[in-house]
Amino acid sequence: MASTRMKLINLLENNRAEYISGQELSNQLDISRTAVWKHMKQLELDGYQIEAAPRKGYRIISNPDKVSQNTLQWGLETKWMGKHLHHYDQVNSTQDIGHELAKEGAPHGTVIVADEQLKGKGRKARSWHSKKGEGIWMSIILRPDLAPVQAPQITLLAATVLAQVLAVEGDVEPQIKWPNDLLIDHKKVSGILTEMQAEQDHIQYIVIGIGMNVNQDGSKFPDDIRYKASSLKESTGHAWDITKLIQKILKKFEHTYEVFLKEGFKPIKLTWEHYGYRIDETVTISTMKKKWKATLVGIEADGALQIRNEDGSHEKLYSAEIEWGEGGYHA
Ligand code: BTN
Questions:
Q1: Which residues in the chain show pLDDT less than 50?
Q2: Is the domain defined by 282-323 classed in CATH 3.40.140.10?
Q3: How many whole angstroms from 212 Cα to the centroid of ligand 1?
């Protein structure tokens, strides 16, 4: 059931060209004219520009740049993804909030978005730079009916979602570097961190964290990652609307998840391999014991990377150092 505020925004959005009188709004929303006026003041505080003309009424001039629960949910074309959505100006990590909410019973598809993270977490206990308003710092709670060993499929699925959204919206050629880094022109623009709470044979919930560098200028990246990280703005030459991008990601995520439920992992695997970085190419791989050359073939349903050795044998890799070549950095 839409809130009065959402109904009000809908009415104003759907009549952008015309004014709607206070009386009309009060009738349609079944609230007093004073209450209408109070809602308008709140919308203005949230960044909506609203014109109020005497004897004509109200109309929206422009939507807020600011990301908020309201702007994120307005125009979100999903059935279940993001229907429960929490937006914060500043948090330590959206992952931590995801775990708290999941433990309190938050439903499948709950989304947590922050403008800024003070302790953004990356994979392998690295930190993730998450400055205010510069990117997407978001966690999604999922409750898949899967065994814990299948959890990597969800991460791979998420990577295909991001790749497809970037390809369509950004007109760029993203690639997925195993297991789940999103690259544009060999530089990382996005990463995924999956954390899970599970029993022996059943996943209770997954918190899937998506970090995407959106509007940073290249010079803004710290020295240690400057040569290997990029943002969408850097790659495309223009700033991006973070709200719209989040909405596109959530919509694509919902759709891809439903395809996964219906058709299994196969379509995800094919999409992943389509975008896979250095697939069909030879790279140098090293483990504690040896270093050798092999060709990257694709991914497996358990998240492993499949390689073909020079003697033609196939092997599954779960963790290894890979010399990716360009950029010269490691997995
Ligand atoms: C990686 O190391 O590539 C994964 C980075 C994941 C970062 C995101 S930002 C939103 C969510 N909250 C976090 O603290 N981390 C993830």
A1: 1, 327-331
A2: no
A3: 8
